[in-house]
Design brief:
By secondary structure, this protein is mostly helical. It is 70% helix and 0% strand. The protein has one domain. The protein contains 6 helices and no strands. Helix 1 packs antiparallel against helix 2 and helix 4 runs antiparallel to helix 5. The longest helix is centred in the middle third of the chain and has 24 residues. The protein is globular and about 55 Å long. It starts with 5 loop residues before the first helix and ends with a helix.
Length: 151
C-alpha cells in the first residue's frame, strides 16, 4: 500500500476538498478581494500536491492525470490568449468588451473574471506538472548530473 499512514490519508481526503473550494473562491472573487487567478491556481495545485504526498502518485494521477494536466495547461493559455483577442476585436488587445455590471458584484469586472479563470487553470496545472516531474519522474539526482558533467 503506497502513501503514508491511514490517519494522514484520512485527513488528506478531508482537507483536499476544502482546499479546492477555497482556491475556487480565491479565483472567482480575486477582482474584489486579494487573490485572483495566480493565487487561486497555486492553492488548487497545492491540493493535488497534498494528495500526491499523502496517497502516492497513483491516486493523484487518477484525479488529474499527466495527459489531462497538459490539456488543461494548454487550454488555460489558449483561453487567456483568446480573451485578449476578443478585446482586439473592440479596438486593442485586452479591451474590456464585456459590460462592467454593478460595483462589488461577482460579474462586475468585465474580462477580469474570465482571465482569472484561465490563469488559474494554467498556473494550477503547470505547478502540479512541475511538482510531479520533479518528484516522480526524475531519473537521477542533481548531484549525479553534475558529477557526470565534470567528468
Amino acid at each position: 500500500m503506497k502513501g503514508l499512514t491511514v490517519i494522514v490519508k484520512t485527513i488528506t481526503d478531508f482537507v483536499v476538498a476544502f482546499i479546492v473550494i477555497f482556491g475556487a473562491y480565491i479565483v472567482l472573487y480575486g477582482h474584489l478581494t486579494p487573490g485572483g487567478g495566480f493565487a487561486g491556481g497555486v492553492i488548487v495545485a497545492c491540493a493535488f500536491i497534498l494528495l500526491m504526498l499523502g496517497h502516492g502518485k497513483e491516486v493523484a494521477f487518477s484525479r488529474l492525470g499527466e495527459r489531462m494536466g497538459h490539456v488543461l495547461d494548454s487550454a488555460g493559455a489558449l483561453a487567456f490568449l483568446l480573451i485578449g483577442w476578443i478585446g482586439l476585436a473592440g479596438g486593442y488587445f485586452f479591451l474590456n468588451v464585456f459590460g462592467r455590471g454593478d460595483q462589488f458584484r461577482l460579474l462586475s469586472s468585465g474580462m477580469i473574471l474570465p482571465a482569472n479563470i484561465a490563469i488559474a487553470f494554467k498556473v494550477g496545472t503547470s505547478l502540479f506538472i512541475v511538482f510531479a516531474a520533479l518528484a516522480v519522474f526524475r531519473r537521477r539526482s542533481f548531484r549525479s548530473m553534475i558529477e557526470d558533467e565534470l567528468s
